[in-house]
UniProtKB/TrEMBL annotation:
Protein name: Ferrochelatase
Pfam family, one: Ferrochelatase
PROSITE patterns: FERROCHELATASE
Enzyme type, top EC level: lyase
GO function terms (MF aspect): ferrochelatase activity; metal ion binding
Membership in a protein family: Belongs to the ferrochelatase family.
Signal peptide: none
Organism (species): Sneathiella litorea
Sequence positions that bind Fe(2+): H193, E273
Transmembrane segments: none
Length: 343
């Protein structure tokens, strides 16, 4: 029975008020986020994290001072481990690795090494690939693994924007929310975390993949004349970010005098961007600008279709014939645009 370690990657979040500023520093010190050389990047990260901390602390205060992203990811890791070990011949163990707060790659790589697996599978919990998320996490992992001499054969998954289990989980979660709309007609807003336009212009496939996810969900819903739109939330800083923004779309819905059903299309668990930004800030804005009804669809979380889809991809990755030479850059959904570890 082969031992297989599955490492789930996500962003991470502060585990208390004192962690907010150092968490933000780690985020802005990431060269995938702030693309400056080292001493300057350190200084910029210090300045931005100090300035942003009070705003972020207010956001996390709504959640009791900390992010639920780790417990949410733990639930997903447990569900995936159970699914993978269901009657199979391999023994799977899931690990969680966060990019900007604990558990960090250095500690998790050591834990994986101590478990002594025959195979390691890297699974970013980002359906759509971005240089700022999946690639940044995998790079950090590879550096940590190298440092401690973890040289177990490793396969990684770049992205899965149209994975069947993801799409059917969304369709299943959206349908009852659409049915809840009782007043004016509804528009479905697929809201993804934004990205500076410059990063997309440099070749990041995130926006393209987000659009593919939304299209597939709409196709799966099979509703005639469904009114829908992709938009981007959570802008930070003065740069131009992807458009239209979610705020702009909420204003437009108010002008059109319709209802909104909002779907977080790039997050697979609940955290500040869903529980505060979507549920509190945007819900308030929707009311102010005259949106008739505002409903928010839950993230896919531990939805059985999503977990089964992840498990199927992990099992597929166990087949060495579908791995590239480096073990990475696997794109089961056929996205040639995926740039992960192409270099
Ligand atoms: C698809 C996922 C994400 C992308 C792409 C992404 C890019 C990105 N984010 C920032 C800045 C911030 N993001 C923050 C929180 C946050 N971001 C994501 C996901 C993506 N980010 C998640 C899941 C979370 C929530 C974490 C949690 O609550 O646990 C924050 C902190 C919150 C705040 O201050 O508003 C910042 C800052 C940039 C600059 C960026 C791309 C360049
Ligand atoms: Fe973010
Ligand atoms: Fe890919």
């Amino acid at each position: 029975m082969a031992k297989k370690a599955v490492v789930l990657f996500n962003l991470g979040g502060p585990d208390g008020p004192a962690a907010v500023e150092p968490f933000l520093f780690n985020l802005f010190y990431d060269p995938a986020i702030i693309r400056l050389p080292t001493p300057l990047r350190w200084l910029v990260a210090k300045l931005i994290s100090r300035r942003r901390a009070p705003v972020a602390q207010e956001i996390y205060a709504f959640l009791g001072g900390s992010s639920p992203i780790l417990p949410q990811t733990e639930a997903q890791a447990e569900a995936l481990e159970n699914k993978l070990n269901e009657g199979g011949t391999d023994s799977y163990k899931t690990f969680i690795c966060m990019r900007y707060w604990h558990p960090f790659a250095a500690d998790v790589a050591q834990e994986v090494k101590n478990w002594a697996p025959d195979d390691v599978i890297l699974l970013p919990l980002y359906p759509q690939f971005s240089s700022t998320t999946s690639a940044s996490s995998i790079k950090e992992w590879q550096e940590a693994a190298k440092k401690i001499g973890l040289d177990t054969p490793t396969a990684g998954l770049c992205c899965y924007p149209t994975m069947a289990g993801l799409i059917s989980a969304y369709a299943d979660l959206i349908a009852p929310k659409l049915a809840e709309v009782s007043g004016k007609p509804a528009r479905l807003l697929f809201s993804a975390h934004g990205l500076p336009q410059k990063i997309v212009d440099q070749g990041d496939p995130y926006q393209w993949q987000v659009e593919r996810t939304a299209e597939k969900v709409v196709e799966k819903m099979g509703l005639e004349n469904l009114d829908w739109k992709v938009c981007y939330q959570s802008r930070v800083g003065p740069m131009k970010w992807l458009e239209p923004s979610t705020e702009t779309e909420i204003h437009r819905a108010g002008e059109d005098g319709i209802s909104l059903v909002i779907v977080p299309i790039a997050f697979v668990s609940e955290h500040s961007e869903t529980l505060v930004e979507l549920d509190i800030e945007y819900a308030k804005l929707a009311k102010e600008v005259g949106v008739d009804e505002y409903h928010r669809v839950n993230t896919v979380g531990v939805h059985a279709d999503f977990i089964a889809g992840l498990a199927a991809m992990v099992e597929k990755l166990s087949d060495p014939s579908i791995r590239s030479e480096s073990g990475m850059r696997i794109c089961p959904s056929g996205y040639k645009d995926c740039l992960m570890l192409a270099s």
